[in-house]
Amino acid sequence: MALWGGRFEEAVSEVTQEFGASLPIDRHLYRQDIAGSKAHATMLAAQGIISEEDRDAICAGLDGIQADIDAGAFSFDINDEDIHMSIESELTRRIGEAGGRLHTGRSRNDQVATDTRLAAKALAKQLMEDNLGLRRALVEAADAAGDTILPGMTHLQHAQPVLFAHQLLAYVWMLTRDFGRLRAAFDAADASPLGAAALAGTTYPLDRQMTAEALGFSRVIENSLDAVSDRDFLLDLEYACSVMAVHLSRLSEEIVLWSSQEFGFITLSDAFSTGSSIMPQKKNPDFAELIRGKTGRVVGDLVQLLMTCKGLPLAYNKDLQEDKEGALDAAHTLDQCLTVMRGMVSTWKVNAGRMRAVMHRGHLAATDVADYLAKRGMPFREAHAVVGHLVLEAEKAGCDISELPIETFRAASDLFGDDVVGAFDLDAIVAARTTRGGTARAAVAEQRRAVEDALAAD
Ligand code: ARG
């Protein structure tokens, strides 16, 4: 018979036992569940609601159960529906009547919300650690890149040369904001629902502040209906995961491109590549592709929970049982993606020569040639048109703008002098972009300091 057997005459149908159970998912929350129960029992005793003997028996019994689950020596029964009932039934089998007093002034509704919030906090913490690890790896790669330049792109077309370090630090900034979103998700989960009971609070003199503090929550949720029925803290976590996954997916896409024969900018280490079962020559960037692919799952998890929550009246509804699978999946997926990405970034080989070699195509100096004219008095719009015409000539001749003869420049404008060749120097082009946040070495060094400050603060 289920724990609510009193009101029922028939046992639940076998098909619904498994259908209604959340045990396969929430059994992973046993530590949170036991911590919550111990805090609750301790508070019940402190308030004189149960005896100190009962409290001691409950806490010792729960410790024993935790040790058994840790050791893989606990047999879960799907008929118990969820982790809360599994543990409570087993506790009562072990310690008798005292076990039946644990649930005084509590409902599974505030219990599951408590467990889930504790789990969400732990997941957010873990992801924050992972996030810092990847940021450090990217910063190290940026430091190692020195003066290496590559064609900066827009629309995947050569645009202007940039420092490779600058390109990598762009991802560090995305991840820095991701960290902020994870911290916000942690803060959202950091409020205790325990004591809300089923939906309305209870008649027992519970001390909610006491259980909140015992469980490490920074505050108590002020409305019992809100406490048991909202899962926005999980949405926050899944949103943080989704945006971070999208950022990792963008970097993955670059890795796939950069490691292709066409680009050849990086070579992935063997440890982070795979071969083909038929083509002996293949070395594939599978793991970057997989991170890109898993992003769909993570975003799907977020959308699933948004849909689950959208039509729910107050307060608890069983739909909410569908909250944990996606949240755990999103967080665990991200945890793996961050670890794998870190491994890829710290072991790839950068082919600086190849990055430079491809830059003789694409007229990367065109903007600077236009600036050359503008700085000699020609309105920039006019300069843009003059250089556009030169690019057209270069295209027709099948060369880069920097390879056109000086006479062609002079014919286009008498403002061109021999020194125009200076405008073709890719390193000088990079060095000239000294704007704050720009790609010049000095500006990147400034940026690097801000990156370090953010790392130190997080
Ligand atoms: N297994 C449930 C869940 O995960 C626990 C809460 C059930 N409460 C209830 N009244 N049915 O949401």
UniProtKB/TrEMBL annotation:
HAMAP family from the UniProt entry: Arg_succ_lyase (MF_00006)
Cited InterPro entries: Arg_succ_lyase_C, Argininosuccinate_lyase, Fumarase/histidase_N, Fumarate_lyase_CS, Fumarate_lyase_fam, Fumarate_lyase_N, L-Aspartase-like
Its EC number(s): 4.3.2.1
Location relative to the cell: Cytoplasm
Family affiliation: Belongs to the lyase 1 family. Argininosuccinate lyase subfamily.
Keywords per UniProt: Amino-acid biosynthesis, Arginine biosynthesis, Cytoplasm, Lyase
Functional pathway: Amino-acid biosynthesis; L-arginine biosynthesis; L-arginine from L-ornithine and carbamoyl phosphate: step 3/3
Keyword NADP annotated: no
Molecular function in Gene Ontology: argininosuccinate lyase activity
Fumarate lyase N-terminal domain span: 6-300
Reactions it catalyzes: 2-(N(omega)-L-arginino)succinate = fumarate + L-arginine
Main subcellular location of this protein, as a coarse class: cytoplasm
Gene expressing this chain: argH
Protein name (Swiss-Prot/TrEMBL): Argininosuccinate lyase
Occurrences of domain Argininosuccinate lyase C-terminal (ranges): 364-431
